[in-house]
Amino acid sequence: MRGYVAGQSPSVASVYRALAEHHKAQAYPEAVEAAQADFAALRQRSVTAPTSP
To answer: Of 1, 17, 35, 42, which is the most buried if we count CB atoms within 10 A?
Structure first.
């Protein structure tokens, strides 16, 4: 979980955010797949793009 410090419990807000994120992913699987595909394409482009000197 984001914001988690070892040895401490996560905040209520971070637990709520994680649950909301999980719920959205379950409710809209096609949107998650599309976002993952877009991200993969962007990463592929950045790997193959020439770097400027």
So the answer is: 17
CA distances to 5, 12, 13, 15 from 9, in Å: 7, 9, 11, 10
Here the tokens at position 38 are: 């877009």
Rounded-to-integer distance, Cα 18 and Cα 53, Å: 41
Q: What angle is formed at CA 50 by the lines to CA 40 and CA 52, rounded to 5 degrees?
A: 125
Q: Which helix (H) or strand (E) holds 34?
A: helix 29-48
Residue type present at position 38? D
- For the stretch 2-39, pLDDT in tens is 555 677 888 999 999 999 999 998 999 999 899 999 99
User: Which token pair is 1?
Assistant: 């979980």
How many residues belong to the chain? 53
